[in-house]
Each structure stands twice: as C-alpha cells, then as structure tokens.
Amino acid sequence: MSNPWLALTLGDDPTEHISQVGRAHERFLTGEQAVTQVRPVVADSWRRSAGALVSPDGTAPIDLSDGELEAYRAAHPLARVLPIFRDLLGGLADDGGHLMAVCDAHGRLLWVEGAAGVLRGAESMNFVPGARWDEAHAGTNAPGTALAVDHPLQIFATEHFTRGVQRWTCAAAPIHDPATGRLLGAIDVTGGDHLANPHSLALVRATALAAEAYLSANLPEPVTGTATVSVSGREEAILSVSGRRLRLGRRHSELLVLLLVHPEGRTGDQLGFDLYAGDLNPVTVRAELSRLRRILGPELLDSRPYRLRGNIEADFLTVTRLLERGRVADALEAYAGPLLPSSDAPGIVRLRRLIDSRLRAAVLTGGDPRLILAFLSAPWGADDLEMWEAYATALPPGSPARPLAMNRVAQLAAEYGLTLAGRTARSLRATSVQRPRI
Q1: What residue stretches are annotated with the GAF domain (predicted)?
Q2: pLDDT of the residue at 298
Q3: Does the residue 1 lie in any domain?
Q4: Which residues span the domain enclosing 155?
Q5: Average pLDDT, whole number, for the chain?
Q6: Of 198, 266, 416, 435, whose CA is between 20 and 30 Å from 247?
Q7: Which pLDDT value is given to residue 432?
Q8: 392 shares a domain with 260
Q9: Does the pLDDT at position 86 exceed 90?
C-alpha cells in the first residue's frame, strides 16, 4: 500500500505526474467537484483553501515585520531548537538548491534560510520571515498543510493551490510541545522536484522528533505563582500559567469555567450534564477532558473526580467576590463582559445569567448615576431600558444630561413597543420596564 503522505510512489514519472495534477487543479478551479488523480490529503487541502477564499493567483500576506518579528521569534519556544534545525538540515540549505524554513502554529514563517539565489527566488512568492503560510492565507503548501492535518507530508509542484508556488516542492513536519502536546509549529524543506522522495520526508520527520526530544529533556523550570484565566467577554478562555499563555477552544473553555466554580471537583457525568443536558454523551465528555488534561498538565487538573489544582484566579470569580463584599464600583470595573457569550452549554448559560443579573441588580439598587452611566456606556448595557430610567431618575432636575437620558428612555420604549404616557420622573423611580435581556 502506498504512503499517502509521499508525493510520488515508486515508478511514477514526475513530469507526467505534474501534468496530470496540474490539469486536475485547473478543473477544480473551474468548479469540478470530483478531484481525481490527486492524493486525498491534497484534494482535501484544495477544498479547505477554496473555502477560505484563497486566490489561486495570490501571495501569502506579511503578518510580522522588523522589530515585531524579532521580538516574537526570540520569545518563541522553537528558537531554542534552531541550532538542531541548522545542524540536521543546514547541509540541504547550504547546497544552493534548498531552503530550510520554520513556522509557528499559525503558519507564520519565523526563519527562512538558504543560499542567496534561492532566497531571492522565494521572495517572489513571499516565502519570507513574517509571512503567513497557513492554508487559509497561502493555500495548499507543506508547512501549512502539515499544521492543518498535524502530520509530516510532502507537497509536490502542481499540488500547491496557488499557481505562483507550483514550481516548488516541499516537505514539512509538525512540532509539538512535549509538556502539553500543543502544536508549536513546523519544520520545512523547500526546493526542486527532486525533493519528492522518501528521504526528504524522513529527514524532516526525524528533525521534528529531535527537536521535541530536546525540548522534553530541557523543559524550563515551572514558574511558581498563580495561574490566571480570562474568560469574561471572550468566546474562548485565555489561560496564563508558568510563563505560558494558552488559548483554549470552546469546549475546553466551558469545562475550565465549570471546574473553576466547583473547586470540590465534578464527575464526568456532572460535567457532561452541564455541557450537553439531555444530549449527554459520556464518551465525548471523557475525550474532551482527556484532551484538556493534556493541555493543562496533571499538575493543574486531577481526575476522579475532575478538579483543578493550585492557585487559579479567574476574572469572572473576581467580579462575584467583589459583589459579595459590596464593592459594586470595583466589580463593574472588573467586569469585561458576559461569560463566554456564545456558549449554549446549560451550566455556562446559568452561570452567565447569574453573574449578569447580580451585577445589574447591584448597580440599579445603588442608584449611583456614575455607576449607572458606566454600565450604560458598555456594549452589553447600552439598550437597557430599566437602567436608562434609573439613570434619568438619579440625575438632578437641572442636569444637562437628564433630557438626553429621558429621550433615550422614550426611544427605547418605542422600540420595545411600550408607552411612557403619564410617566413622570417620580413614577420612573417606582416603575421599571426591563428589556428582554442584558
């Protein structure tokens, strides 16, 4: 059985293969759905590239440049293994026909090295440090597609999605953080058609493994202190721990929040009910928890029951603590927005509504026009009719802001199909109309 990650199999004619794949590429661009004579990994990549609206005649955009690029790659974990890349692949890069490239997990090229003449040729297609070579920006290519499928592979000539890259052939392998399993980036060798052989793919894979082995044997000392979670007003949680800043996916963000509000721990079934309610799938929950544990590490996440370890601060917990202490102004300042606003997980929805209603009630009850205005000035409070009524009532009669507030009250009441006939500033204090939801 042929290796699906290799561009050519034994006995293939490279010239004929280039022509066949090139014709399939042109048919695909004209709308033909069935992609024949093309490896499935390549056909799938073409579909993703087309879905991302990558132009077959476009070039990769520059994402980082100058000082910003220097600072970013100096702090990147792959900077520590750059000597390994140069030692194992430098011979290829120095022979005048190849380039060695290293990219981050987003496909941004960090280093591109090789002979001056080959580098000049690569510049014409923006294969330069700082350029974005993930599939969504540069189409099918070895480093970008290796990141997308998380596997070493080759991309040969006309298998590239953009025409300007089709005179090149490349082999790339992804690299992972041995401590967390997260994707760090990829190592790539780019050159001529002769790279389409098993040796180039084996070489980049061995180089990636050597880099991971070095990182595993030289893990940085853990940074003691408190981990922090930022999740208010965000679709995905940001976890800062031991010098790392991790962005979690939606389900992992939901799980992290649910574990934070239950420090005593939760069973898989309890977490599954909070995530899926009646659609509980224990296998799915366990799989998500297993992946989250690989990301966080056993030092942060225990199992049986699942619970977080160590000191972990979260922005939404800060808000609730401040409200419990009666520090409404500080709570409002700390509130960055609704908790995971797009999440429909039942446990998250309940928690989000609880925090929002407690903060809103505290501001309304206090009657401080400065705090009410701060609430109304935020995107989540701008259309709150009851809050505008409270603001209009709290302002002194001679305040120049009061007519504006009354006008906004009338405007919102009309939008909600309500009437303010007969209301006075005095009755506004006693009568409230709540908008559907903050």
Answers
A1: 109-212
A2: 67
A3: no
A4: 14-217
A5: 87
A6: 266
A7: 38
A8: no
A9: yes
Q: How far apart are CA 343 and CA 313, in angstroms?
A: 21
Identify whether 199 is part of a domain.
yes
- Strand partners of residue 120: none
403: cis peptide before it, omega within 30°? no
Contact between 154 and 196 (Cβ < 8 Å)? yes
Question: What gap in Å lies between CA 433 and CA 438, rounded to an integer?
Answer: 13
CB under 8 Å to 77, separation ≥6 — which residues? 177, 184, 215
- The residue written with tokens 């120095």 in the block is 94
Which residues, at least 6 apart from 228, have a Cβ–Cβ distance to it below 8 Å? 239, 240, 241, 312, 313, 314, 315
Q: Are residues 109 and 170 in the same domain?
A: yes
Task: Point out the least confidently predicted range of 127-141, 369-383, 422-436.
Answer: 422-436
Instruction: Answer left, alpha or beta for residue 385, where phi above 0 means left and psi between -120 and 50 means alpha.
Output: alpha
Asked if residue 7 belongs to a domain, the reply is no
Closest CA to 179 of 111, 242, 239, 105: 242
Q: pLDDT tens digit string along 332-348?
A: 989 999 999 999 999 99
Burial class (CB within 10 angstroms; exposed 0-12, middle 13-18, buried 19+) of 197: middle
Residue type, 147: L
State yes or no: pLDDT of 395 exceeds 70. yes
In this structure, are strands 312-314 and 227-230 parallel, antiparallel, or unpaired? parallel
Higher per-residue confidence, 166 vs 270: 166
For the beta carbon of residue 168, count every other beta carbon within 10 angstroms: 23
With cut-offs at 50, 70 and 90, classify the pLDDT of residue 401: confident
Contact 373, 391 (CB under 8 A): yes
Which contiguous run of DSSP H or E holds residue 426?
A: helix 425-430
Kindly state whether residues 127 and 269 are assigned to the same domain: no
* Residues in Cβ contact with 345 at an 8 Å cutoff, skipping those fewer than 6 apart: 254, 274, 275, 276
CA-CA distance, 210 to 206, in Å (whole number)? Answer: 6
43 within a domain of the structure (yes/no): yes
